[in-house]
Amino acid sequence: MRFVVALGGNALLRRGEPMTADNQRANIRVATEQIARIVDGNQLVIAHGNGPQVGLLSLQAAAYTPVSPYPLDVLGAETEGMIGYMIEQELGNLLPVEKPFATLLTQVEVDANDPAFEHPSKPIGPVYSREEAERLAKEKGWAIAPDGEYFRRVVASPRPRRIFEIRPIQWLLEKDVIVICAGGGGIPTMYAADGSLRGIEAVIDKDLCSALLAEQLSSDLLVIATDVAAACIDWGKPTQKSIAHAHPDALEKLGFAAGSMGPKVQAACEFARNTGKVAVIGALADIEEIVAGRAGTRISTASHGIAYR
Predict the structure, then answer these.
(1) 2-219 — its CATH code?
(2) How far apart are CA 18 and CA 135, in angstroms?
(3) Taking the model in full, what pTM does it have?
């Protein structure tokens, strides 16, 4: 079977955790220990988030005043290499030495007229208190938005239209290579008036890009791995319930928050509806159980309504 596993940026660097390389590697190790158990006999593509990581690089770049900070597309390319390297190394330490890996810098086309450019909504970087977030917004001209009890910087998040490296990814899979690609939703690019391709100051949603990737690769399963065990209703309330499985139409009616579970639900629903296959939202540490059908929230057109755990 062919799987696309999308690792969330907040799962690789957990909320409230110091943003160190050691912490990131430890969280990646949790993911790779799970992924190593589903490799045998399957083709595997790994995508990943990069919101906290690209936000950290942005802060570091802003602190170095002699030169202008690098734009978000360049920082996104940096994080693809950094996170891909760690995933390759940690997974390679668990699998036979002859198993090949490849990390691909992945350019993704977006539409210059996408309405998302008028309404920044994609959270990047670390979380802040309201007071600190408002101070940074004033100093740096950022847009900010709530993220649970905290606040984060938000930027434009245009929809992915085309993955330029889809053919090389396909070729590598046919050679039994584990491919790490589309990190952070890919590097956002668009065509200029003169026909040249250029990067833009935006972040593509990782989950929507992973869904497009899985669809274009004819994946049998899309796994969206995050820092919670399932999609839930009444999150954080005494009435909270985990969703076991759902039809896309029923799940979308629940109205999940745009800054957290919303994009994951949207991506899972789009993949299930467009392909007739299954998408699952669940915890990083449950990937083996997710693939076995025993964990996470399963979204499929074969299901009717919503069932809870």
Answers:
(1) 3.40.1160.10
(2) 21
(3) 0.89
